[in-house]
Write a structure and sequence with these properties.
By secondary structure, the chain is mostly helical. The protein has 16 helices and 2 strands. It has a two-stranded antiparallel ribbon. A hairpin with a 2-residue loop joins strand 1 and strand 2. Helix 2 crosses helix 6 and helix 10 packs across helix 11. The longest helix is centred in the C-terminal third of the chain and has 28 residues. The two termini are 17 Å apart.
């Protein structure tokens, strides 16, 4: 119960941060500001900004003025990807996070532009950390984090995975290709979040490489669990349509291996991620950190 209360409080803090980061809904282009706000403030787990902050704290980071711009930016990038995922040309979903998707409210053209706007504004927001850097050492960390934020959502990360996913929709996908999609489409932003948190806190290259590996396992477990929930949960619980993978004729971990093996693989990837965190040198009592508890909850979530 204590964890649930702490998670609720931390999520509420992210909501305040996101609200503060958004532009005012005014001017000739205020429709795009409204569309950005509609999707960004629609709720959700806020796991990526939380992963940035808690990984930052995991490695001893304290100055929130440096990390908060990246927390807002990663959620803007994630939200833009959801807006575009829901478009008729892709998944054609009418509901997201329990309410109508952006294109159903603002129209398809404005939905596309809202996604574009959030992606661009994410980098404008993250760049604010440059001004918050206290010295050259922190500025160097910010630059490294910006490199990660630029690469992981792009053609070698999330977009790359989405491309393969779209091209193979309705076709049988072999395991190595499905794994590639999971690693990039879902895993890349989780990796980015944890790497950025570590980089901003001053973790060395070997620590960042380890946290990237742990995040990789977390991303795999998260996506497999998502496939499981698409079969076993309901729209009321998830806030989005279930059985959408079946509707779109998508190969998933469940269709490839069955429910029992999928659940076993979630546990396997979870253990591998946790082992890396526990074995991380220079970190005091990893199991007692909120990051450890949060990842454990995240992987085995029911919504």
């Amino acid at each position: 119960m204590q964890f649930e209360q702490e998670l609720k409080q931390k999520t509420a803090e992210v909501e305040v941060l996101l609200d503060r980061a958004l532009p005012a809904e005014e001017g000739f282009q205020k429709t795009i500001f409204s569309a950005m706000r509609y999707s960004l403030m629609a709720g959700g787990k806020r796991l990526r900004p939380l992963l940035i902050r808690e990984t930052y704290r995991f490695f001893g980071g304290e100055d929130m003025s440096v990390v908060e711009p990246f927390m807002a930016a990663i959620e803007m990038i994630h939200t833009y990807s959801l807006i575009h995922d829901d478009l008729p040309a892709l998944d054609n979903d009418d509901y997201r996070r329990g309410r109508l998707t952006s294109h159903k409210v603002f129209g398809e053209a404005m939905g596309i532009l809202a996604g574009d706007a959030l992606l661009n504004y994410a980098f404008e927001t993250a760049a604010q950390a440059i001004d918050a850097a206290a010295d050259e050492a922190v500025l160097h960390r910010v630059v490294k984090a910006l490199q990660t934020l630029s690469r992981k959502p792009g053609i070698y990360g999330m977009i790359g995975g989405q491309v393969v996913d779209v091209e193979l929709t309705g076709k049988e996908i072999p395991e190595d290709t499905l794994r590639f999609i999971f690693e990039l489409k879902t895993g890349a932003l989780i990796e980015a979040s944890m790497m950025i948190g570590a980089q901003l806190a001053g973790a060395d290259d070997s620590q960042v490489a380890l946290i990237e590996k742990a995040a990789h396992h977390i991303g795999m477990a998260f996506q497999i669990q998502d496939d499981i929930l698409d079969v076993t949960s309901s729209m009321e619980v998830l806030g989005k349509p279930v059985h959408s993978d079946e509707k779109n004729e998508k190969t998933t971990w469940v269709t490839l291996y069955g429910m029992e093996q999928a659940r076993a693989d979630v546990d396997m990837y979870s253990r591998e991620a946790m082992d890396i965190l526990v074995g991380m040198e220079g970190v005091k009592a990893p199991k007692e950190t909120f990051l450890y508890a949060f990842i454990e909850w995240l992987i085995h979530r029911q919504y």
